[in-house]
Amino acid sequence: MNKFDRATRKYYYDDAHLSECSARVVKIGGDYIELDETVAYPEGGGQESDHGVIVSLEGFEIRFVHVRKMYTTRVHIPDMPDIGVDGVIEHVVHDDDKGLLEKLRLGMPVVVRIDVMRRARLSLSHTASHLVYLGVSEVRPDAVAGTLGCHIRSDAARFDFAVSSRFLPDELAEIERLANAFVTRNSRIHMYAHAEYRDARYWECEGRVIPCGGTHIDSTTPIGSISVRRKSMGSGKERIACEFAQAMPEIDAFHV
Ligand SMILES: [Zn+2]
């Protein structure tokens, strides 16, 4: 079990469109705030974290510019990369707002609110990245076997692969075509949790399943279109990046 006696309640798994929640201050660090509950998604699995504010009932706001999951317990689940479950979520405070930390008290009630445009863009980007990955898995299964990592930003996403031969123009065109076909079909996205571990989650689209604990959108249409390009990262290493110039982030889907 967790070496800590506590774990943050993570509302982003209950409802990916919840923009804020009430919480209480559990710990005040030198540059971060831990709450008992949060809607803020931490950096993980290559996806950048949410940004947002922690609002005190006394009227002051503290901006957070990074969110991290700490003190998790590593578990091994078949057909899934080893992951950290439970743990606490730390909201890293903007440099200019650190002076406000001294106004907080343990147990103080607050509201934590995320930047919904950033979350909407990250969820869209993350979903699109999976469609590109499915395209790569069709065209270049050797590359998928050599996946080195990914980085999901709000405006773009990329994967790095260890490969013995570079991606050819025809292969890139086919990967892009396959990814965009998912968008054209307006495919539904389903997320679900592992039966035993709530933090172990799966992404599913048209029967294709990818273990992933990130945030995603519910269907593919808002992605608009996906453009794919490659970059050589030196011998034996290729980067596949995707962008979505016609993205339509769904901020209207968020609620309090
Ligand atoms: Zn994902």
UniProtKB/TrEMBL annotation:
Keyword Ribonucleoprotein attributed: no
InterPro entries, A to Z: Ala-tRNA-synth_IIc_core (IPR018165), Alanyl-tRNA_Editing_Enzymes (IPR051335), Thr/Ala-tRNA-synth_IIc_edit (IPR018163), Transl_B-barrel_sf (IPR009000)
Signal peptide: none
Gene3D superfamilies documented for this protein: 2.40.30.130, Threonyl-trna Synthetase, Chain A, domain 2
Keyword Metal-binding: yes
Keyword set, alphabetical order: Metal-binding, Zinc
Top-level division of the source organism's lineage: Bacteria
SUPFAM superfamilies: ThrRS/AlaRS common domain (SSF55186), Translation proteins (SSF50447)
Annotated transmembrane regions: none
Protein name: Alanyl-tRNA editing protein
Taxonomic classification: Bacteria, Pseudomonadati, Pseudomonadota, Gammaproteobacteria, Lysobacterales
